[in-house]
Records
---
Amino acid sequence: MNSTGERLFRILLRAYPREFRERYRDDLIAFFHEDLHHPRYGSGPLRSLHFWTTTLRDLARAAAQERFGGEPSTPHGHQPAAQVVAGLLFDVRDAIRSLRSTPAVTVTALAVLTLAIGAGTAIFAVVDAVVLRDVPFAEPWRLAAINEVELPGGRPVPVAYPNFADWSRRQDVFESMAASSSGPLLTTIDERPEQLRSYKITANLVELLRVRPAMGPGITLADEQTAARVALLSDSLWRRRFHADPTVVGRQIKFDSGSYVVAGVMPQGFKYPIGPAVLTNIDIWIPLTPSPRELVRTDARTYSLRVIGRLKPGVSLEQASARMQQIRDALAADHPRWFTDHGILVRPIKDSIVTPSAQSWMMMLLGAVSVVFLVACANLANLLLARTATRSREIGVRTAMGATRSRIVRALIVESVVLALAGAAGGMVLAFWGVEVLRATLPANLSRVSDIAVDLRVVAVATLVALITGVVCGLLPALQLSRADAAVALRSAGRSATAAAGPQRVRSLFLAVEVAFAAILLVGAGIFASSFVRLVNRDLGFSPVGVLSVGVNPKVPLDRAAYQQAMRAFQSSMRDALDRIRAVPGIESAALVAGGAPLTGSWATQTVTAYGRKFEGDEEVVLKQVTSGYFETVGATMLRGRGITAEDRGGAPPVIVLSEEAARKYLGDRDPLGAQIALEAEAPRTVVGVVRGMRLLGPEAEIAPEGYVPYEQSAEHSVSGSIVIRTAQDPARLIPAVKNAIWSVMPGVVIPDPRTFEEMFATLISQRKLNMMLLGIFGALALLIASIGIYGMLAYLVAGRTKEIGVRMALGAVPSSILRMVLGRASLLVGAGLTAGFVAAIWLERLVMAFVFQGIPHDPIVYSASAVLLMAVGLLAAFVPARRAANVDPLVALRAE
Amino acid sequence: MTRPPVRQPERPPLELTPIGFEVLLSLAASPLHGYGIKLAIEERTSGDINLGSGTLYQAIQRLEREGLIAGGSEGAVRGSDPRRGRTYRIEPLGRASLENHLRRLSRALDYARAHRLLPSAKR
């Protein structure tokens, strides 16, 4: 606290007039340091709060007197400013003293607030960074994204080059319009080649964003028009590969596809496009130059551009949108083929960054955490009500001595605000940690994940919310109490708390509300958890455990003859590589697959002709080219016949293995074994086996008809392929050996990061897992807070009714009946809250159904499990005070007053 | 701008504010630095008067301007720690004003005791 505290104090010293400050600054700071260790500020977490309120109060009063006059000897100066500040600080000090006098309530309230504000702040930080925040460019409100939209439907799609060119020429609402599109992967030429991500931009894009390259001239209009091979480097690439060399501009970088001249380095932190990490981690920006074919409107339409514009000053988004619509309509008249199914959409750039589904997901999380926050607020209000009820005598004394109602209300609100702000401070610490965890856990395809942070903006919002919470939660007991007649309060306080029946009823209501919110969250958590269990237990049709997938991307020559030759060379190299990999110790089996390894998300289909019928479009077969050992390696189940073997060579009779679904679809009731089917324009193949269908795209995918042909019998397969490897060891540990085996046969070939099937599976379910965990945490928090509320309420009740219980026992009530009475009261409260919560949950359920896998509406298991859990925890919380009540000694209780 | 303390020992004793009086009383025995003054007052009054830095230095500023005390680190006190801030010592005018104030208090106290306005110290 020393250095930060001193820095803060130095800033605060500016409150003094200059003359005073200059003469006494060092003395004041010396005083400050010594005072830090003064014993009168107590110990524990409230110490620094006590110290600072004291210091601030003194500083505010002295500074106000120095500036506005008044005598040091009169602590409450006559200047209104000084008076207000001094009065407020007095209230704050009073509040802290009072809060310290009831440590149990204070600590409980602080814990509840810290947890709820911590969770809320962390989630808000995520939602703010992903959805709410504007883009990090100058005057972001003037930036618009311009898309084409599919008609009907209105789904935004990228823009075709001729449309961008015509829009730019005809429009008069934007300062300029710029286009960009993803560029090629550029492979560096050196020992261990690296693929750099490039992005193509028009020359005006950087200027439109009001950014300047950190060095170099950047991409010029001439570069764009002449398709110059110049490149802007990202700051990280410049540091990583060029060791931050200041003379890099003008140098050549060599890639396998040619070389580029460095035209500049972008400033640190520059990101474009904005979006998920896979999109924003760009290493190199190069000029976007259309090919001559793209400039004329032929029948072939390619939509690939991301277009943005900067609105002219004074032009609104609506005006721009209307103008662009006019331009589109005029173009549609000239080129009807291009526009019958395409409209135009102008929207704020921010809205184009996050998909609507991600937006609603974020809002769902924010909604869920808000419910946790509401539980905490109800709890805080309840704690404060209980607390003020025990202080009615003190308030009565104050009122009797002339304290005005507004004065008392103010004191009580200040107390609650101080509490809320202290809770917010604790919550912020929790949020810092929570955000780290969330940032690492959120799916990488979510926009702007790396921007998530608890920054000033988030802190400000959290503080404001805490302030409002404090005022609202403090207002309630304040009004309740200050309404009380001083005389009544003086007479009744200290006696049975049941005398105050009104507050009791309000508190029961709050507790029921708390339980109801907790019930809603528990149902939500249950819905997510049960759906997640269904998801991970779904049968994939193969076994991902212990399987590694290694992709291999060879260089591809573009002309046809060279392509054929390269492909043949690649095939034989892959065979050799496969043999070497199979020889690596610890590898049980290995096989090659082209057309997309399972779970990678890549796949290809072909038409099928069987018994004179051709299956096209949606009915095509998902086709993979595999070597022998493939089915064993991925753990598929052969149902009939055989798999692909080493004998299925180029010259051998062409064969195919079908999945169960494919056999049924293409062959109907006929016996599949021995049947003939043809793919695309090929000669027919004989079906030699049937395999169980697989969910190749992950647990949420439906099973599509699959076909497997021998790798060496396929003419038209992709040049790239994946090697799948099964091992009993940790598959990740085999990666270096496997890479070396491949490089020994194909030096210099690019091997993108190998991944295990389990990793890919984990990625596929990560968002659902995160949802389940977050909702689980929210549910647990709500349950914890509600049980604290139940405990506190009943403990207070029992304490207040000790005399009554004593009388009952003196009259012959047995302890078990007292226990029943208290627990009955608790189950009544919990039951009422539970019922209300379930009614709300049944209505709210549909809001989360879009986020779960195969959600079951009104799932009886979820509801009954939530009810049992809530009731059990509620009764457990009630049991401690109930037992205390049952153990009341009638003699002691009756003598107590 | 700092006004140099005006030294006019021949000037008549000045009236003291309550805090000014406490500060002078603390400095009467020996020179002290700021926080030392605060601790001395706190100890003497059993914690009834608890000065913050702002209030204390407001009083010090006033006493310095009136020439009742003088501050400095120029070896005013042997063994004083420069990190604790300037050390203040009482000036002749300050001592005269303090004595004047104390005499008046003493007379008031005698009167109060004689008329049983205060519980007697002995009993």
---
Amino acid sequence: MSSRRQSTPGQLAEGGLAGFGGWDLRSAARPSVIWRWWPAAVVAMACVAFFQATRPEVVVAASPREVEIMARQYAYEPHRIVVDPGDEVHLRLASTDVVHGFYLEGHDIEAEIRPGSLTAWARRPSTGEDFRELEEIVFTAGRPGKYRYRCSVTCGTLHPFMQGEMIVRPNLLYRASLIAACGLTLGIFGLMMTGALGNGVSRATGSPPCRRIDLLRVLPGLRWLVTRRWFQFAVVLPNLLVLFFFVVAGFFGSPIGNRNIIVTIVWILWWFLLITVLVPAGGRVWCMACPVPFAGEWLARRRLIGVRREAERSRSLRTGGLNRRWPHRLSRMWLQNLLFLTVCTVSTILVTRPALTAAVLMTMVVAAVAMHALYKRRSFCRYLCPLNAWLSVYSMASATEIRPRDTGLCADCRDHSCAGGSAEAWGCPWMVNPSKLDRNNYCGLCMECIKACPNDNMSLHARPVFADVSIRRLDEAFMALIMIALVIAYTVTLLGPWGTPREWSNVTEVGNWGGFALHASVVWLCALGLVPAIWYGLSWLAHRVAGTSTVSVREIFVRSTYLLVPVGLLAWIAFSLPLIMLNWTHIASSLSDPLGWGWDLFGTARQHWSPLYPEWIPSLQAPLLLLGLAVALVRGHRVAQGLFADPSAAIRSLIPHGLACAAITAVMLRLFVG
Amino acid sequence: MNSERLAAALVILPMVAIVTAIAWFGWLSERVLGAQETVVFDLTGVASAGVWTLGPVNGLNYWWRDFQPATLQVTEGDEVVIHLRSADVFHRFYLPAFEVGPVAIEPGHTVTVRFTADRAGIYQYYCTSMCGGCHFYMRGWIVVSREGEDPVQPPPIMCTLCRPDDLPRPTSESLVDRGAYLYLEKGCVTCHGPEGQGGIVNHNSANSPVPAHNTTAEKLFLRSPEDAEAFIRLLDEHDDLEALEEPPEIGLFPVVRTRYENAREIVRKGRYSSKLDPAGPEPPLQMPAWQHIVRDREIDALLVYFVSLYPWEEG
Amino acid sequence: MTRRSSCCSASRSEALRCLASAVLAAAVVLGAAPIEGSCPGCGSVSGTVAVEQAYIRSDGPKHDRDVVVMLSPTGAEAPPEPAAHASMDQRGLIFVPHVLAVPKGATVTFLNSDREQHNVYFLDDRTGDTLDIGTWGPGVSVDHSFDTPGMVITLCKLHLEMAAYVVVCPSPWFVQVAFEDNDTPLRFEIADVPAGEYELTVWHKKLKQKGGSLTIDVQPEKSTEVDLVITKAKYARAAR
């Protein structure tokens, strides 16, 4: 076993060096010092990963292990226990404030911890038996891996995030995935160098030529559907009614987050679907269905279904709003980046307080109305909606797109109804020129251009994921960087075993404003300062190792942030996975009792909390993170090829950012699996 | 234009329907089938305010948490129905006088209890599952008055912690002052009475009323004010009486130390209060094990505070 | 289930001593039993106990009505009375009786009639030594024999408010009486006291015998009359 573990990285390192050996160094235009040392850097990183993987963990106690775990709102002390497989663990549980639960993944143990009592009430949840009073819980540690223990009794606002972790040594999955991350990095760089990967990129667009399926041709029913004038209304209407119901529930339903439908559906189900299904499959398809701008758009258009061209030219609030242009200075996503960051700073409170969620949604609806009254078209969505910024960046990954079928036809077209509107369709509400669409970022998939085009030249295509590879602007680049900082911050705060960050971020309950300020400034500094600074430093390094001065550091900086799209998206998916696997019973019970008033519409209101295969979560997260790394490197290669004519310079320029992506993956692996 | 009207109707009518459905269904689920003289209360436990409160607790008003403790007024012979809810954490409702509960109130679930108020009087109901800092204040009155009588209005039990004016910070760092503060802060006062005077009735307990604390000096075998003062000073200066280099000037010091350790163990491990009538309900007030909630030094502070409360008589 | 921890279970030497004393006790009992009640050549001691400059609470949870009057022969030591047996209950979180007077060598059974755990430990008021005889649950009893004359405070470490007094008298000639109210002097009588010189001591939880213990001479077939006064320690000392 151990010999195999030792040999793996060695082999991989050799493979990497072999690839490097086959590479003609002298063909590089200006081999710099750094360039000469990069293999050493890669080997050093592999060594670090290897030692990290094989490092013995801290020994806790001899078997049988006596462990005393103290529960408080919202963490356990100790937050991490390390045991060996087959150890007999004697567990004593105590609570210092309110009744807490204790559910140990993979060991069929559930307990209720009552404060002021020296015993715990435990049971084996798989048997459905009643809780029995026990002085200590005795169990045998199972197979190696990471198991979390989490609260199973609603214990306050942040209850769903209260958890600790038990490691059964050796954590093979963690070690294997670290080694795999190194192997992937080396392997993909090796493939690039041997030329087996990614040739034939068009330099003009930076987009790889890849197969696309014209969905509207393949599915004629779909074409009929999306060209109906009532199509978007029909999609939005259910969401609108649901939103309305949720806001009522948020204000007048139970104050307990996991018992109020607004929190369970929006922050568990919707968020999960958005990040794992809607964005990867449909890009900004949510924008098509989003009910938030509905009222504003109705006000501006004075139509729910039909088209009224005068509304586009209105200069009065009475006839369809003032239709002003949004100030040019604010037309980048900086404002949205900051708004998004603000929302995320308070998100711990936001996602656990039904009334706050309802208030924020209502604020967005009101802001949309105001924006539609003052500014043109969907100015709110494009320039103010906090979600827009990250949707625009991550929608580049999606498997669908709206594009002109034949760009030549568009070049000759004098009609421009796709952008300006016609009797059948509104001009592009997103204020893009559909005929020149070459990436998904600002296309809200509203289907108006498909309706508008007199030549039937606009269509919906299916395509490989992560097909758009060009981040072009600094604000977009920052969004990708912010999302990386945030996924780490969220994972630490909400899914980490540590209580302090949770306590700091939960300021309205705890009242520790100093801690909250610290938490907020760390998040802001990392998202806007540290992470971009590191990335810029790496870009400078890339500039140096590429050895050609045709591309500026800034250009490399902006373009290379595309690597963070797959890494970030997959990390967000890995983050969202446990949300649904752990909390699906909350969805089931709140569907039956949406307001938490004691209803039971479908008989599931009293369903006991039981997570879905929680012990498998790390095993699912690790491959997702590795997939993100692999895609980042492969697509990053295309980005680099788009920047540098010289293939070897392109690969060299990728090294710093590629390694950074591997490092981010390692950090995420540590948080999720380690 | 017709399609526009239809669309608008599709937007507005379902919205009205949603509100109506919520209101109607809410009313339906609250309705209680029973005798005409049934009295229905909605009681929601709010841990963060330390109250059982009447009326709705929802996302909106929970933000401010300005809830009043509920006094339930009923007439003798009424059949009473209480819908119990929790607004935050796990509670346990207990009305020992009518043998209602203790019933677990899980957050998000509604539990309905019913009983007949067959004896006039003023009784207390409690939360008997520790639910945070305000737990010990989380109790209220049920007033059962006779037909035609003016109902009594007992003063509501307010949580001192939630009204910082009632809980002045200790004026000095001395152990006694800290103990006096902790006595209020940890809620000891609600069962052991103001200034440790005891006298709080513990329904059907073999040991009712709850033991007083102003006689602690006696229980610790501190036999004179001088001894008591020396003991207070001693604990103020040392946190480990085992490690003293020379025995202090306190009569029977080994005994005092043993008693002090016993007292500390009782606070740490809690104390079970048994039933007076074995067929009757469980006593509502049980001394919790404070071991994991209060630090040993804080127990010291409480004990010296109790010692300082002893009314030393003349001679 | 009864846990017995009488003196016989402690160690071998103690067991031997115990056996010896049991034989002796049997002899004493056998010899004394037929003539009990009509002890030839015995006298009696009787009298009153009054309270001065103090107040006795004769009822309520904090009463201190119990008084023990005991005689101790000044010459030879009185024979132990190991057959003597008494019991003390813990009921309703109170030791019953509050004051238990036993002769030296007597065995006391400590019961638990409550529905919760109780502990018993003894505190020697003079030395400050403590002896914990254990913690036990409802229905269980534990025996303990008292061999040294003196007063032992009985305590429960689980319930600090519980306290009782075991007064171990140096001889079988003692009587335990209780005040009915503060003002009425208490009458006592100790019968069947062999003639001789005795030291008479009054024990009370708080108050002391005015003038300290006194020596009396018991005449055969005669009743010796003594009038005793108990008062606060400082007045008792002053009178000496």
